[in-house]
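To the wet lab folks,

You asked to see what we're planning to order before we commit. Fair enough. Below is the target structure as tokens, and below that is the sequence we designed to fit it. If anything looks off to you, flag it before the synthesis order goes out.
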């Protein structure tokens, strides 16, 4: 997709055919990027708050859908007598 050394995958053409959206590991995170079909400088599209991947653009190009994988760990307190569980949530990693 690009001539740079970064790992790029999951390409998706824009409906007009002028851009390619893709998943890439850049700037320390996995996010969605786009680049002109003829080349140029990639432009970041999503914030990279999770592992964002698998872009899909609506036919009218008004919507972008993608998957986000966020890791988090929770501590679950399980009462063996009652079976009641309390989830102590943590922040995403």
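Sequence we intend to order:
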């Amino acid at each position: 997709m690009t001539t740079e050394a970064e790992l790029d995958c999951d390409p998706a053409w824009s409906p007009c055919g002028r851009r390619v959206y893709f998943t890439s590991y850049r700037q320390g995170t996995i996010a969605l990027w786009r680049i002109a079909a003829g080349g140029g400088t990639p432009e970041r599209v999503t914030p990279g708050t999770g592992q964002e991947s698998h872009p899909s653009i609506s036919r009218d190009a008004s919507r972008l859908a993608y998957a986000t994988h966020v890791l988090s760990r929770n501590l679950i307190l399980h009462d063996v007598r009652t079976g009641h569980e309390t989830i102590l949530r943590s922040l995403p990693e």
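Structural context that might help your review: The CA atoms of residues 11 and 22 lie 4 Å apart. The mean pLDDT is 84.

Thanks,
Computational group
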